[in-house]
Amino acid sequence: MKGGGVAEKQAEEKSTGRARGIDRVIALMEHLHSRRAPTRIADIARDTGTPRSTMYELVNTLVEARWLELRDGDGTVYFGPAMHYYGSDYLDSVDLIRKARVEVAHIAETVGETAQFCTLDGDKYLVVLNEPGRRMFRISSEIGIKVPIPWTASGRLLVDHMAADEIRRFIPPEDFVLPDGRRIAEDEFLEDIGRARTQGYVRTTALVDRFTTCLAAPVRDAAGRCIATICFVVPADTTEEAQQGMIDTLKASAERLSPGRP
User: Which residues does the UniProt record annotate as the domain IclR-ED (predicted)?
Assistant: First the structure.
């Protein structure tokens, strides 16, 4: 092989190795996020399919950068302070999320119930912001954890711009099965979407949690597409009168957050 060919091959191998290293960092971060708890480095290496020596090297580099931190005494690692700063910078840089932080905190304090700001991530629903209410027993969902769309009230609004066939193609069939094995009928789900679009809000009870009701209103862009939702998560035995008051609060809040709406 000529010298030029050798150099090109070496450059390609170096580039491939660098890309593989980035993939492993991403896998490490995703694993910690899914576990939501400090984890042993050897377990991360095993679960992500990364050689243990490589994982230790990655962790040491990321600890120096403060992306990760070692937890003293138990041999585990978790996100470090730099990740908090980066996340805070991101939240401050997105106008809608910045406004939603204020709005969610305000309605949670005013009404006294858990309030959330939610959106789509691919074909899944996730909570972006969560503000607990004043109850001793608090109902909440974990921020950033992807959940099947049919399991949620907000999901029925976040896909309301799609035609029925689009929705069926978009949502994996297995996502219509709830954690307890019950199956949500697709036709009923589509009817819920149409009703929610007409009403300007959605209410679901006893989906993932049999003792919980979720109320959600759509945040829409200038074209009328639902880009996010704001919602309350309340006990299922909350009175109808109280729920109606919360729905009015959510609709007003969603309208304030909807960018460019007339």
Answer: 82-262
Q: Check if CATH label 1.10.287.70 holds for domain 3-83.
A: no
Question: In this structure, are residues 219 and 188 in contact, taking their beta carbons and an 8 Å threshold?
Answer: no
* C-alpha dist (Å) from residue 119 to 100, 105, 106, 191: 12, 17, 19, 21
- Per-residue pLDDT tens digits for 73-120: 777 999 999 998 988 888 777 788 899 999 999 999 999 999 999 999
Domain borders along the chain are 3-83, 94-257
Report how far residue 36's alpha carbon sits from residue 243's, in angstroms, rounded to the nearest whole number: 32
Tokens for 145, please give them: 């954890």
| Phi and psi based region of residue 181 (left: phi greater than 0; alpha: psi -120 to 50; beta: remaining) | left
| pLDDT score of 9 | 44
How far apart CA 144 and CA 165 sit, in angstroms, is: 28
Which string of DSSP letters, residue by residue, matches 62-120? HHHTTSEEEETTTTEEEE-HHHHHHHHHHHHH-HHHHHHHHHHHHHHHHH-SEEEEEEE
Q: Which of 176, 240, 244, 182 is nearest to 210 (CA)?
A: 182
Confidence (pLDDT) at 69: 92
Q: Can you tell me the distance from the alpha carbon of 122 to that of 145, in angstroms, rounded to the nearest whole number?
A: 12
Architecture of domain 94-257: 2-Layer Sandwich (3.30)
In the numeric block, which tokens belong to residue 96?
């809608």
